[in-house]
Structure formats: C-alpha cells, structure tokens
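Quick one, T. Sequence first:
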Amino acid sequence: MVESVDLEPDGRGGEQLVARVRPRGGQGSRCSRCGRRCPGYDVSREPRRWRGLDLGTTQVYLQALTRRVSCPEHGVVVAAVPWARAGARFTTAFEDTAAWLVCHATLSVVAVLLRIAWRSVSGIVTRVVTERAGAVDRLAGLRRIGIDEISSWRRHHRYLTLVADHTGKKIVWGAEGKDTDHPGRVLRRARTRAQRCT
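Structure tokens:
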C-alpha cells in the first residue's frame, strides 16, 4: 500500500521519486525464506529502500520500514515484502527486467542501461534463475539431444559438461567437470519421466 510519493534530490543534481509503502494486512509477517506466517520479532528504526523501474529518466525507489519475524525453521529473519525477493535491494519487476535484458545484452551494457553496478546485475540474475529453476521442467518434451564438453582457456583446464535440446535450441542441463556420468544422470531422469507418461 502506497502511503506517500515525493520527489527528492538524488545527490547528483537531479531528482529521484521515493514512494513510501507498507505491506497490506498480514503480508508483512511472513518468513522471507519459506513464506510461513510467523510472529513478529522487531521493526527496523531506519527505513529501507528498494530500487524500482525508472520513470523516464527519473530513478524510482520504494521505501518502507522492515520487520523481522521469528521463524521456527529459519530463526529470526527479515520478513518478506510483496514487492521484492528475499535479500534483494531491487523490486521484483526491476530484477525480472534486468534478467530479461541479460538474455539479449552483456552484463556491462545492462548495468549502464539500468544505472547499477555490473556485480548487482550478476546477483540479480542469480536470484531470478534460482527462483525460476524449480518452477520449470527443462527435460519435458526432450527428444533430440547433444552432449558437449567445453573448457576454459586458462592454464588449469576447467571443464563444463552441457546437454542441449536440439529441437528447442537451448541448454537443458550443465555441470562442472568432464565426468562421463554427468549426462547419464540426465538421460536416466529423462527416461524415467518418459516411462511415467506412457
């Protein structure tokens, strides 16, 4: 819920838009790791800010007081907020946009476009991929595959084994090393899924 919106100086001669927000009802009392409703522990003294998508050339921030909850499984953690992933300094919309852009441009180009550090872009991609990895079955509909090993150009060769879906033209699995059993695990998993479907 938005409480107020203000334009503030950004410290570089321009302005930034700051929306002061708070979660609705019971949204602010969930563990940020498991989503379980938990008893409150304390409330921060200073508000926290999350970078949102820009409004034209104006940077946008959401600002809110954060709560900590006492989760029986994870202990005392910062409560989940509906507009951002756990541990993120950016809104979910901002992170989803950054991750999509990385599919089409380099980290450094995306960093310049979004006006953030390239290390922040890398962290965003890690969070988005981690969240989405469990929601998508990359082996579903697998018919024609290719298996390849690639190595780094450094002195101590580091290998990566990749399994590609030739029909969908995408990488469906990868693991560090050049162990020949790596693809075997993928194939056994795909065969088991195919047998369940027939």
